[in-house]
Design a protein that fits this description.
This is Reverse transcriptase (RNA-dependent DNA polymerase). The protein is α+β, with helices and mostly antiparallel strands. Helix content is 44%, strand content 16%. It has helices at residues 21-27, 32-40, 65-79, 96-101, 123-133, 138-148, 161-167, 170-182, 203-215, 249-263, 269-290; strands at residues 45-51, 57-63, 87-89, 108-113, 186-190, 193-198, 226-229, 233-235, 238-241, 244-246. Helix 5 packs antiparallel against helix 6 and helix 10 (249-263) packs antiparallel against helix 11 (269-290). The two termini are 20 Å apart.
Length: 293
């Protein structure tokens, strides 16, 4: 999806200096009555266990449909703000392929994964963003914070959490960007995946970034940290081999298995789903290979 033409500086965001709750409810396309109803509701989130790509379970909390609609509106307003170049997700018009392509041709790569990112993004940091950065008054901050957080943190499952995870910690990301630039490295952030590349990525640079994360209440998963020098590397699901972007072998294998399954699969809903999966794999490869032309 191309980036929306309605992209502007943060101080042009509709939520910036939103001075009254009345105006806020109008911006969020809701009402004081609906807000009061949500406040009184006993269960606004439904726990769902999903499976990560590595097979591990992930608990998410899906918001009730009417709360979700409001959260989507908040996300929509914030997503219109022009993002920094290093932020690749959640950004309209940028993808995991863009994230990987930013590092093509580099000799060295360091891959970091932030542990339990959303659960460690606190309500107090969201309040800081709404109050200090967006300059909303306390009563408006209280409403926005309540609408976007659950039990003191950003809920994994809320459509507002991805973009708020950036803005609530934009000072942290600014520090990390400055560290990377000073070291002559390219930085990208794709949700909780942090990638550095360059002629070399020094250990002290990585430690400085980890210290910045720790200062703001985050840490990386040591077991998922990767260092590559002069070898192919998989960055957000895309293989980088010198200047070339490729589909990972595991994706080729998955596509092969789907094709074999389709050979003996009768017509019906299951076959339609399998065909859709196959088309998805093929479209992903087309998008990746198109970057090499």
């Amino acid at each position: 999806m191309p980036r929306s033409a309605k992209s502007y500086a943060l101080d042009q965001c509709a939520l910036y200096r939103c001075t009254t709750r009345k105006r806020l409810f109008r911006l969020l396309q809701t009402s004081p009555t609906k807000y009061a109803e949500l406040l009184a509701a006993p269960n606004l989130y439904r726990p769902i266990t999903k499976t990560k790509k590595n097979g591990e379970p992930r608990l998410v909390h899906a918001p009730r449909h009417d709360l979700k609609r409001i959260q989507k509106r908040i996300s929509e307003l914030l997503m219109r703000v022009t993002p920094p170049e290093f932020l690749k997700s959640p950004v309209r018009g940028r993808s995991n392929i863009d994230n990987a392509a930013a590092h093509r041709g580099a000799a060295a790569h360091r891959l970091l994964d932030i542990e339990d990112f959303y659960p460690n993004c606190t309500a107090s940091k969201a309040s800081w963003f709404f109050g200090t950065v967006l300059k909303c008054p306390p009563d408006v901050v209280a409403v926005l914070t309540w609408l976007t957080t659950r039990q003191g943190s950003l809920p994994q499952g809320s459509p507002a959490s991805p973009i708020l995870a950036y803005y609530a910690y934009q000072n942290m990301w600014g520090e990390i960007d400055a560290i990377s630039r000073a070291a002559g490295n390219t930085l990208t952030v794709y949700v909780d995946d942090v990638t550095l590349s360059g002629t070399m990525v020094r250990t002290e640079t990585v430690w400085a970034i980890k210290e910045a994360l720790a200062k703001h209440g985050h840490r990386t998963k040591e077991r998922k940290e990767e260092a590559h020098l002069g070898t192919p590397v998989v960055v957000t699901g895309v293989v980088l081999r010198d200047e070339v972007l490729l589909l990972p072998n595991v994706q080729h294998l998955k596509r092969h298995r789907v094709r074999k399954a389709l050979e003996r699969m009768p017509e019906g809903p299951e076959r339609e789903r399998a065909e859709a999966v196959l088309q998805g794999h093929e479209e992903t490869e087309r998008q990746i290979l198109a970057r090499n032309t």
